[in-house]
Structure prediction request, 271 residues.
Amino acid sequence: MRDSKCSKKFPKPFQTQTSTSDDGYPKYRRRSPDQGGQSATVRNYDIDNRWIVPYNPLLLKIFDAHINVELYSSIKSIQYVTKYINKGSDQATFSIQSPNEVETYQSGRYICSSEAVWRILSFEVHDRAPTIVHLAVHLENGQRVYSSYALKMISRKLTYDRVPSYYTWNQSSKTFQRRKQGTVVDGFPGIKKTDALGRVYVIHPNNSECFHLRMLLHVVKSPTSFAHLRTVQGVIYNTYQMACKAMGLLEDDSHWENTLSEQLFAVPLHH
Prediction:
């Protein structure tokens, strides 16, 4: 649906075929009476297809309201819908003149009928789902976090970003604790899971070690120490970047070297 503020001026020009303009809005076919279009006289006004907007008779009958329907082929249509759904209540500024000609200005809030009913019935005004838990990243000795989740059996299969689904962070004790509400996990008595998602804070690549530490936290399951994160196949690497490279998480020129080696051995030698 489109309101009067966004409607284009009428009457529209006649058009033989439907086309899409540069801004994504369609230009519908509007045949003139000479081309088979319809015309009529309503309340002493002559109207034709130039004055008709796309509509759905079923919706008009159901809602008993003015509803026009259009088909869009641009991202602007999504922006339009999102803007008008989330823009909040309208506001208006008006003035009141008293008999003594003293002018007072007030900022008034307009509440439409649908919002009034929504609030009278005590419906939730807003909601967010699922829960997003932000997870911090720090280098060794940067911040101490005492975590008990690594000692639990279920956590042996979890990476850092999946921990919030099963555990909650206790800010006072600085520890992860089992969730008391949620769906029971089969095979793990006492463990419950929710749809909460963990999102690790973004680290700029210029902060190389912390950036590669964040990368390892999404791969290594149930790390028990910082040294554990740097351990790959029993080898403890000095840096997180070296550990990422050993795990194949970083791109290098090895695939080019392997390709050249394969081509070299594939070329027959002539004496």
Q: What stands out?
A: The first strand starts at residue 19 and ends at 20. Residues 90-120 form one domain.
